[in-house]
Amino acid sequence: GAGVSQSPRYKVAKRGQDVALRCDPISGHVSLFWYQQALGQGPEFLTYFQNEAQLDKSGLPSDRFFAERPEGSVSTLKIQRTQQEDSAVYLCASSLGRVYRNTEAFFGQGTRLTVV
Amino acid sequence: GQQVMQIPQYQHVQEGEDFTTYCNSSTTLSNIQWYKQRPGGHPVFLIQLVKSGEVKKQKRLTFQFGEAKKNSSLHITATQTTDVGTYFCAGGRTGIYGNKLVFGAGTILRVKS
Q1: Most exposed residue of A41, A66, A92, B51, measured as fewest CB within 10 angstroms of its CB?
Q2: Closest Cα to residue A43, out of B98, B91, B31?
Q3: pLDDT for residue B8
Q4: What DSSP line would sit under chain B, residue for residue?
Q5: In this structure, what DSSP letter does residue A105 have?
């Protein structure tokens, strides 16, 4: 596609419910990032994939958060037993760069998750 | 938590005035990127700085990377209403497997016409 696509754009979940957020990166982009953006804050790093390999998951806030990219393209961020503090915009970004390359990140529109 | 500090948090200027936002890291960065996010939108890449002391210009925007590669600034000359948005710096930290971008909290710019 022309850009990074995320779905759904909005998600309302009841506390305790599991959610799955999808990211379609730009075709051919090797690197994929997930960020969490709270209202009025900058994006906070969650995890990073190079192709299908999850090379850094140091930003995942708890073991309720799980991300995968099984075929090196589409990625899913899953949050189990959602809690109110999980409410945020979840941004996915992809970049052409490989390891040790500094290239720009293209962001999707994000998924706004509200836990009630 | 955030390891890249950005100030000011918020600035409201009269159209035509200049604007500057500053970014500081506690550790040396491999590179720094700047992004702009319009209200309701997503971050859009503006520029990347890699070299110590580097200065880059994009029309009315001037970007600087400090000599120690720990700080950076974005200066906008003669702001326009189209400059409204949140400006984020993102510091690149080199790890074993590549770079992680650590974002500052952003500076919200409002322009009065």
Answers
A1: B51
A2: B91
A3: 96
A4: ---EEEE-SEEEEETT--EEEEEEESS--SEEEEEEE-TTS--EEEEEE-STT-EEEETTEEEEE-TTSSEEEEEESS--GGG-EEEEEEEEEEETTEEEEEE---EEEEEE-
A5: P
**Are B103 and A42 in contact (CB < 8 Å)?**
yes
Mutate to test the interface with B, among A48, A101, A102, A107 (most CBs of B within 10 A): A102
Task: Answer whether residue A27 shows pLDDT above 50.
Answer: yes
Residue B39 CA: distances (Å) to CA of A30, B21, B94? 29, 18, 31
Residue that is written with structure tokens 């970049």 in the block: A95
Residues of chain A in Cβ contact (below 8 Å) with chain B: 31, 33, 35, 40-45, 48, 50, 55-56, 91, 93, 97-110
pLDDT band per the 50, 70, 90 thresholds, residue A1: low
